[in-house]
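Fill in residues.
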C-alpha cells in the first residue's frame, strides 16, 4: 500500500495535468467559439437521442397503457429533437443561444428579487451585482440574436473550461504542497 503522502502527491499531479488540458481546451474554445458552439449543439443532439432511446425502453416497462404512451411520446420528442440538433447544428446552436439568453435574463430577475429580500445582510450587494451583470449578459446575447449564436455558447463554454482548468491546477498544486507535510 502506498503512503498517504504519495497518494496525495500523485493525485495532485493528475489534477494539475487535467487542469492544463482544460486550460488548453478553454483557450481553443475561446479562439474558435463557432466550432465550440457547434460541438455543444452536436453534444446536445446526441444526449437527446440517447435520452429518447432510454424513454423508448422505459415505454416497454411502463406498467400501464397511459405510462407507456407517455414514455413513447417523450421518446419520439427526444429523438426528433436530437435529430434536429444533429442535422441542423447551426440552427440548433441558435436555439440554444436564445434559450441561454432567456435563462440568463430570468436568473438575473430572480437574483435581484433575492437581493431585495436580503438587502440588510452583509454581502448582499454582491447578489445585486451578480443580477445586474447577468442581466447585462443576457440582454447582450438576446439583443444581438441570432448573430450572438456565433460567439455566445462557444465563448462561455471556453471561459468555463478555462476557469475549471485554472481551479484544477491550483487544487493540484495545493495537494502537492500538502503532500510535502504528510509523512512519506
Amino acid at each position: 500500500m502506498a503512503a498517504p503522502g504519495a497518494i496525495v502527491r500523485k493525485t495532485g499531479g493528475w489534477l494539475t495535468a487535467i487542469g492544463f488540458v482544460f486550460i488548453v481546451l478553454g483557450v481553443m474554445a475561446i479562439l474558435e467559439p463557432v466550432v465550440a458552439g457547434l460541438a455543444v449543439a452536436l453534444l446536445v443532439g446526441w444526449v437527446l437521442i440517447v435520452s429518447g432511446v432510454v424513454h423508448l425502453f422505459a415505454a416497454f416497462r411502463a406498467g400501464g397503457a397511459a405510462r407507456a404512451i407517455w414514455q413513447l411520446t417523450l421518446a419520439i420528442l427526444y429523438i426528433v429533437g436530437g435529430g434536429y440538433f444533429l442535422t441542423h447544428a447551426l440552427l440548433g446552436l441558435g436555439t440554444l443561444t436564445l434559450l441561454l439568453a432567456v435563462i440568463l435574463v430570468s436568473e438575473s430577475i430572480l437574483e435581484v428579487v433575492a437581493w431585495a429580500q436580503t438587502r440588510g445582510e452583509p454581502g448582499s450587494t454582491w447578489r445585486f451585482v451578480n443580477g445586474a451583470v447577468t442581466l447585462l449578459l443576457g440582454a447582450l446575447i438576446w439583443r444581438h440574436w441570432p448573430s450572438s449564436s456565433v460567439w455566445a455558447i462557444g465563448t462561455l463554454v471556453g471561459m468555463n473550461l478555462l476557469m475549471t482548468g485554472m481551479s484544477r491546477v491550483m487544487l493540484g498544486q495545493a495537494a502537492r504542497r500538502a503532500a510535502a507535510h504528510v509523512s512519506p
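The chain has a mean pLDDT of 88.
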